[in-house]
Amino acid sequence: MKTLRVKSLCCGLSLIAAISCIAPPAHAAKRAKKGGGEAQIAIEAWPGQRFMLILPPALGANWNADPVLGQALMRETLPRLETALRKTGKLGVMELQAYNPILLRGVQDRRLTTEELNTLTSVTSTTPWLDRARQALSKLSFEQPPLIGDFTIEEVRSSGDRERPSVQVQATGRMYELGAVAPTKTVVVTSQPMRSGRQLLDAVYLATSDAFKQIAAAFVSPVMITDLPRAEPQITRPGTVMPAAPGQPTAPVPPTLPNGSPLPGGVAITGSSSRNSAFPPIPTPGQSGDTGQATQPAAPPAGQTAQPVAPTQPTETPAPANTAPTAPAIQPK
User: What's this model's pTM, rounded to 2 decimal places?
Assistant: First the structure.
């Protein structure tokens, strides 16, 4: 029995080892996929945290459900929205309420008046919420400029089983810088399908929370940079003569014969090429080797007559010893 158990245990360990060798771990594929992608640089949206003043959420102009459902949804929207924004770790939430401690501190420091605070939080005021928020925040001081968030629930729809349908909510979020007229970011999302076993309204709440989570994540998402200026290496083919840099003299190239051998006693010619170099011209009789012009006799001094110059006679080869003596040279007349 002991031998049988040992054999069974050994077979089991061998099978596990074989499977582990054949199938790589799941995290290995993720690392390979991550390493094989293009290099990216992630730059955070802003350092630290910034305060965001949340305007009262509203229903969209094309709200497609019962208005009563919309009003019930608005009562639960703000707490869920604040939770989604705080969980990002990059946003501090400011409610547009009269008991907001930051706004009350502004009144205490005499940066805001009580009338301005009441106007800011008034529901019956005809001035848009965004304009009132900009005016009030511009009088307060923060470590970083505050943001303004405007959120709208556009529509709600259900699908699937009628007894236990799935619910999706479409929402829009706009993030404003304090001094900007247009929104810095506009995010439109549709939540994941949500189900609830208790009431249909609970599924609507879950879908709304999911939509707010997506908007908050998009607000603080880092900026991804993938394209950087590249310096392409300069490829030099064998035998290619690279041009000299501007402002540098060309290296002298010694002249060569047609077969490529160096010219005996040759002097390097600056700026010339060994292939296109030519031999210096041989001066013809009666010409100067330097200027190439015919040689003229020098003029006699004043008062003297020019004397004829005797032509140069070729030198004769001496005769052998038994031959007649060499004739005397011809004298000029």
Answer: 0.58
